[in-house]
Predict the structure.
Amino acid sequence: MNWFRAGQQRELAGRIEASRNRIFRVAFAWCGDKALADDLTQETLSRGIVHISQLRDNERLVGWLLAILHRCWVDHLRSRRDHAGEDVLAELPADGPGPEHHAEAQETVRRVRQAVNALPPGQRQVITLADLEELSYAEVAGILAIPIGTVMSRICRARAALRGLLEPAQAPAEHQLRRVK
């Protein structure tokens, strides 16, 4: 029976390692710094492997790891006492027919990352987990250890803030076209 448990733990450790890219994406979305995201990812995976025996439901591995990431992120924020994110001008390769498409995609990525980084940390976390990682509100509430109503209100405020930051500004009334009969 003991060899079965050891084999199961090795299999889970492999699944934890396979989750590295997903954990990194979330960490990067939360902090906006590739080096810090890498450190947070490493710390999350290390804690996950060390505490693998505490995982109660193997099917909830990703949610469990994201909860660990959340604790690592909170620990980092507490250690710095700095809750403001830095703007990141990240370059991601785009599949496009030419340089114009690539430049537009880069600008869109930059603007979205900048807008997400402008959100308060709590809103940044819920929007990342719900909209980018496509987790349910209940899963987000469980990962962040907050009520589902708080998740819903933060998502609503975050989406409204992102809309305001990303939609083009309305032209002043004096610059609008006038109707001519």
In short: Residues 61-80 form the longest helix (20 residues). Helices lie at 2-18, 20-31, 34-50, 61-80, 99-118, 121-132, 137-144, 148-166. Residues 2-176 form a domain with the Butyryl-CoA Dehydrogenase, subunit A; domain 3 fold (CATH 1.20.140.160).
